[in-house]
Amino acid sequence: MVENHAPPHPSWAVVMRKTTHEDRRMSLHAIKRPLALALLALAAAAAQAGTGRIPTDQDKLPKGVQATAAVASQCFACHGPAGHSQNEEWPNLAGQKQSYLLQQLKDFKSGTRKHPMMDPIVKLLSDADLKKLADHFSAQPAVKPRHPLAANAAAPAAAATCMACHDNAALPTEPFLHGQQAAYMESQIRAFRAGTRKNAVMEPMVKQLSDSDIKALAEHFSRLAPVAPATSAAKK
């Protein structure tokens, strides 16, 4: 007996093609819209200043490091000229440890850490450029939280464990979390938990955290005041 396998009804193919197209369109829109808004904001600031160009921190830098701002301008659209991101999905870079920033840039360039927007940008930069970027953003004043944590606010149970590394200016490879974007931190902790972002220390530590635990931690650290800058010894 020969079975008759009829091809799928044409209407299903149309629906599948339409769904795939819609998914791609929405995915691209989710990336392009925040970037477009950031670029428009910078363009408006330039127009208001009467310069006709996107503003940078070039004039604020000491002589001899102007090249740093020239390289960093490639990152200004998303992370801001002074490292203060206006999008909760993108991290603040201001006042972050230089060694940590440099290592993350190197990881993006090598492919150890992946991001659809960062990867193609960083791959075009030299190692000297990466160092200039890390130098520039680590030298900016850290971001103060918009909604500071109340003095008597209770910390999440896991916060004390996190503070051992992330509240320590003497550990050059562990990032400060104070005042960081909550949505960004939440997405990164989830990535560590899922194993899509690799770190031998972080992965086992967050494995047992629930979604509500992660959200509470991210919200807590986003409202903490900045830690004192790392010493020059820690930056080397």
The CATH class of the domain at 144-227 turns out to be: Mainly Alpha
Mean pLDDT: 78
CATH homologous superfamily title of the domain at 144-227: Cytochrome c-like domain
Backbone structural class: mainly alpha
Q: Which regions contain 5 or more consecutive residues with pLDDT less than 50?
A: 5-21, 24-28, 39-55, 231-236
**CATH architecture level-2 label of the domain at 144-227:** Orthogonal Bundle
Largest sheet, strands/sense/barrel: none
CATH topology of the domain at 144-227: Cytochrome Bc1 Complex, Chain D, domain 2
Q: Rough shape?
A: globular
Domain Cytochrome c: 59-141, 149-225
InterPro entries: Cyt_c-like_dom, Cyt_c-like_dom_sf, Cytochrome_c_Oxidase_Subunit
Keywords: Electron transport, Heme, Iron, Metal-binding, Signal, Transport
Signal peptide: 1-49
Provide an overview of this structure:
The structure is a single chain. This protein is mostly helical. Among the domains are: 63-142, Orthogonal Bundle (Cytochrome Bc1 Complex, Chain D, domain 2), CATH 1.10.760; 144-227, Orthogonal Bundle (Cytochrome Bc1 Complex, Chain D, domain 2), CATH 1.10.760. Helices cover 53% and strands 0% of the residues. It is built from ten helices and no strands. It has helices spanning 10-49, 66-79, 98-110, 118-122, 127-138, 159-166, 182-194, 202-206, 211-222, 232-235. Helix 7 runs antiparallel to helix 9 (211-222). The protein is globular and about 45 Å long. The termini are far apart. It comes from Comamonas testosteroni. GO terms for molecular function: electron transfer activity; heme binding; metal ion binding. Residues 1-49 form the signal peptide.
